[in-house]
Amino acid sequence: MSKSLQAIRGMNDILPEQTPLWRYFEGTVARLLDNYGYKQIRMPIVEFTELFKRSIGEVTDIVEKEMYTFEDRNGDSLTLRPEGTAACVRAVLEHGITGGGQVQKLWYIGPMFRHERPQKGRYRQFHQIGLEVFNLDGPDIDAELIIMTWRLWGELGIRDAVKLELNSLGTSESRSRYREALVEYLSAHHDKLDEDSQRRLKTNPLRVLDTKNADTQAVLVDAPKMADYLDDESRAHFEGLKARLDAVGIPYVLNPKLVRGLDYYSKTVFEWVTDKLGAQGTVCAGGRYDGLVEQMGGKPTPGVGFAMGIERLVLMLETLEQIPEEISRQVDVYLCAFGEEAELAGLALAERVRDELPNLRLQVNAGAGSFKSQFKKADKSGALYALILGDDEMAQQVVGFKPLRGQGEQQSIAWDALAAHLATCVVQG
Fold it and tell me: Interhelix angle for 19-35 vs 310-319, to 10°?
């Protein structure tokens, strides 16, 4: 017997009962970004491999171990995008929309791909909402990104479950000086480092700061601190960011070990973390990357952005039971019609109601059926009310109106008055 077809490990279907919560989350974020003046951009999910090698860094874990890379029929090396910033920078350069110092405030949504060990909240195909800002170099825009996410957590009802961690990586020059001091210190304790940190010491020493190994963490206690190597410009920028967060009242924790996993970051880096999801604690992260556009062939252009993982935040809403009641109910009203004449009248009546109440979720029974079977489907739909259209209702040009989720007697509503009645009961009630 042939093997049954199934999804690739770590690449999951999002089933109909799950999508309402996804749509709620995505819609909430989209409205928020619209209100702050951000515009959506959509990029391909496949790019030339060289793009990610040049932007992310060839000695990062993503490029070395995690990318889905293949050769197409033309012999070109292509990669499923592992993150969105590089693709967004490529797009703005290709189309010249940041030229002449034009400010661009952009956001995107879609799947990313990394060959990691799948676990809860961490998948090989995962979805992100990302945001990138170009040609603004002050701490005010860094603060705006963080303030927006703080507002988002409040709208979603999860603000008390997340914590903001901040750090500054300085300019490339100050980071280079710090790297030399860190390598010198860690080299003197080489035998105490775990194997992965020993490898990173030669390729990407700042990533040693991000280790989860307890022995290496003990070594790092007395390691040089990035804050001691910051240049005056970076220090002033970081103080300006903190002052703005203090002014708005956003609490934060300074984390000198926060470096992020990508080579292109400079100055501000931040993460929103939670202890509600086990090992997968980061739900949103980002920072400033002032040198990336130039590194990718453009003119010097300041940039800053973040990305948030949709799977993790949806899981967080479920874990904290912050799911609006209307999300679990996908139907407001279910129309039951008995007999061909009633079915035809019901279709026309339903469209008239939809014209007047475009936000009403009205489902018309399909497949006919007995009174009992149609009411069973109406109840299973989760609708608040059932509309009944049979011979008696047809004769009187009324529709039966029956509450399904509470007290109340069935009543008859004239066809012309139905939309107004539903507006009171459903849209307002």
Answer: 110
